[in-house]
Design a protein that fits this description.
The protein is α/β, with parallel strands linked by helices. The protein is built from eleven helices and ten strands. The chain has a single domain, classed as 2-enoyl-CoA Hydratase, Chain A, domain 1. It has a six-stranded mixed beta sheet with strand order 1-2-3-5-7-10, sandwiched between helices.
Length: 216
């Protein structure tokens, strides 16, 4: 669901655990299309519903794929992450609940992250599910989370609550449940007047290595 509050587009992921499959990629791509086509100041806040932001790839879908098909699907996910990383408007992830695996990568692709402090986990358990990060995903983790926490996230697969994720600079703020979206919107409004062409160029240059890996 996509709504607009003045300059802020709010995309609410509202399909249960918000697993990432081809329909999810298509829907999120359409959200980015709509915001990119909008005129005037604009920003994006992405949030979930209930207990979940996103639990990552749909394992039910992935299990139906052979190796080549899986690689093709991961490439489409990489390209979606690249679009979000390089979006010519400011993006904020309002992490309302569990943010796992590729769902966590989706959050990392945003410019800012606000997470619920008291419940919900942020984790990258690729090592435990047997699906390695792509080169682009690895570059994204390394760029958006400072070492040694980036290495710890990727290698251990451990789960971090909001406060721990904030202390490790995985997210920018950890706040009470009822403040997650308002804080994200506040950040978005503060940065809504950026020139799209200039911001897009800055992101392309700032994240050049990440984008090259995601788009290869």
């Amino acid at each position: 669901m996509l709504e607009k509050r003045e300059s802020v587009f709010i995309a609410t992921l509202d399909r249960g655990e918000n697993v990432i499959d081809p329909p999810f990629v298509e829907r999120f791509g359409a959200v980015l299309d709509e915001i990119e086509a909008a005129s005037g100041p604009r920003t994006l806040v992405t949030t979930g519903s209930g207990r979940f932001f996103s639990t990552g790839l749909s394992l039910r879908y992935v299990e139906t794929l052979d190796a080549d098909a899986l690689q093709m699907f991961l490439t489409t996910v990489d390209h979606l992450l690249a679009r979000l990383v390089s979006a010519p408007f400011v993006t904020v992830a309002a992490i309302n609940g569990h943010c796992i695996a590729t769902g966590a990568l989706l959050a990392l692709a945003h410019d800012y992250r606000v997470m619920r402090a008291d419940r919900g986990f942020f984790a990258l358990p690729s090592v435990d599910v047997g699906i390695p990060f792509t080169h682009g995903m690895t570059a994204l983790i390394s760029r958006k989370v400072p070492p040694p926490w980036s290495d710890d996230l990727a290698i251990s697969g451990d789960r971090f609550g909001g406060r721990e994720a904030s202390s490790r600079h995985v997210v920018h703020r950890a706040v009470p449940e009822d403040a997650v979206v308002p804080m994200a919107v506040e950040i978005a409004v503060r940065h809504s007047g950026k020139d799209a062409e200039t911001l897009g160029t800055i992101k392309q240059r700032l994240y050049h290595d990440v984008l090259t890996a995601l788009q290869s």
